[in-house]
Design brief:
Helix content is 39%, strand content 15%. It is of the alpha/beta class. The strands form 4 sheets. It has an 8-stranded mixed beta sheet, sandwiched between helices. The longest helix has 27 residues.
């Protein structure tokens, strides 16, 4: 137990509330181990079943996780706002931010002209307008259709993660198993924990999820699978045509499974799309706009089977209702604007050049790295803590792999967004030193 925190409570709800308060205050940092169940029960004078129930509630709320023989610990990024914000990746002053994973602001489209066009023609107002913006839906159906995705049934949601959450909620209940990529998108792993779902890791290589791993996950009872179509975060994987065929063959044996595809890179990807849409009876294909157009544009379109989209939109109407029509009109304008398309095409080329140059430089130095598409590369290291620390000392902030992986070996994620080509050799040299896994000896 971390110094400065004392477990308290007589009931399961009181014990879990005490742990939650410790996480909020920072007394229980990410990764902190909770006392063994029997030891905690003796300390508090309650039954082991009471402590076990408290820990189970913390796991279901995405605050704690099972650490195998090491017991229960606070998740790396618990589903709980912290007063100190200690769960965000901090970038030291003066360091180059290669950790955040976002797009390069220098390569985003200028929204000014599109906003001016919107201001000249105000949208309709009132609750009756919540059915959606027809030009946006038409543009989405056309774009998805070109990529081989049937978008006859379509919903508009508040970003990729919102779409994934709504799709999972349309079919699954707490305790259900979900096949997730390992390593995979940290936000998705956190969401699965927060929903009380049980992740089943599926190994990822540069061609996408391993078919045998997916088959094993589905046989173990996974009711859903989430796949990143391309520009996989954090490894840069992209589902190839042969891999898509293999995955479809696996899914054909499990027609009741929900298949969710995340195509967050969209127009930024240099790789063609090989979708899994329709491989089972229940599916959802999510395409967001935050990477090509800007993180503040919280919008994604979701195509899927009729029952899934009906469930999603029905539940949406009972909550947020709809995504702002102002935002829908802005995205529709950007999708149809030639100047915006040219800006996105330039960004695609810039990211491709930076990522390829970094991967080549790292491999030239004998390092094991993946990064076939997208904004990130995945560098294998023997010791994440040492690698992150050494790179910070050299002036580079990178993300520890523990945020993204479940059972795969240690690594760090390096985002190329803030990189210029001239800076890559120095970064590669620093990464080679960091990958030695040895921290420098402190000087007196």
């Amino acid at each position: 137990m971390t110094a400065g925190f004392a477990l308290a409570g007589r009931t399961a709800s009181e014990i879990s509330a005490a742990v939650e308060a410790g996480v909020r205050s920072g007394a229980l940092p990410a990764g902190a181990a909770l006392p063994p169940i029997r030891a905690a029960a003796t300390q508090l004078g309650v039954s082991p079943a009471t402590v076990a129930a408290a820990y189970q509630a913390l796991r279901q709320r995405g605050i704690a996780e099972s650490a195998g023989r090491q017991g229960t610990r606070v998740r790396p990024r618990p589903a709980l706002a912290s007063a100190r914000g200690q769960f965000r990746l901090e970038v030291p002053e003066g360091a180059l931010d290669l950790a955040s994973g976002g797009p390069d602001p220098r390569l985003l489209p200028d929204l000014g002209p599109a906003l001016a066009r919107l201001a000249a023609a105000p949208p309709p107002t009132g609750y009756a307008s919540g059915a959606g913006y027809a030009p946006l839906r038409a543009a989405a159906r056309e774009a998805l259709g070109r990529d081989g995705v049937d978008a006859a049934e379509l919903a508009v949601v508040g970003g990729a993660l919102d779409g994934v959450e709504r799709l999972l909620g349309a079919h699954l209940l707490p305790g259900d198993r979900v096949a997730v990529e390992d390593p995979g998108w940290a936000n998705l792993l956190d969401l699965v924990a927060a929903l009380g779902l049980r992740p089943v890791p599926v190994r990822v290589d540069e061609a996408g999820p391993d078919p045998q791993g997916l088959a094993d996950a589905l046989r173990s009872g996974a009711r859903a699978v989430v796949v990143t179509s391309r520009a996989h975060n954090p490894t840069g994987a992209s589902v190839t045509a042969p891999r898509a065929a293999d995955l479809r063959a696996v899914l054909a044996a499990h027609p009741g499974a929900l298949v969710i595809e995340d195509d967050h890179a969209a127009e930024l990807s240099v790789e063609p799309l090989y979708p899994l849409a329709g491989a089972t009876g229940a599916w959802g294909f999510v395409r967001s706009v935050s990477k090509p157009f800007g993180p503040d544009l919280r919008l994604a379109v979701v195509a899927g089977d009729a029952a899934t989209i009906a469930r999603l939109t029905g539940r949406q109407r009972l909550g947020t209702g709809w995504v702002s029509l102002v935002l829908q009109r802005l995205v529709a304008d950007l999708w149809g604007d030639p100047a915006t398309a040219a800006t996105v095409a330039r960004a695609q080329g810039e990211y491709e050049g930076r990522r390829v140059a970094l991967v080549d430089a790292l491999r030239e130095r004998g390092l094991t790295v993946t990064g076939r598409t997208g904004l990130n590369v995945w560098l294998s290291v023997p010791d994440e803590t040492a690698a992150v620390a050494r790179l910070r000392e050299a002036g580079y902030a990178v993300a520890p792999g523990a945020l993204f992986r479940i059972a795969t070996p240690p690594a760090v994620r390096i985002t190329v967004s803030a990189l210029d080509l001239a800076a890559i050799p120095a970064l590669a040299d620093a990464a080679a030193r960091a990958a030695s896994g040895v921290l420098p000896t402190p000087t007196a």
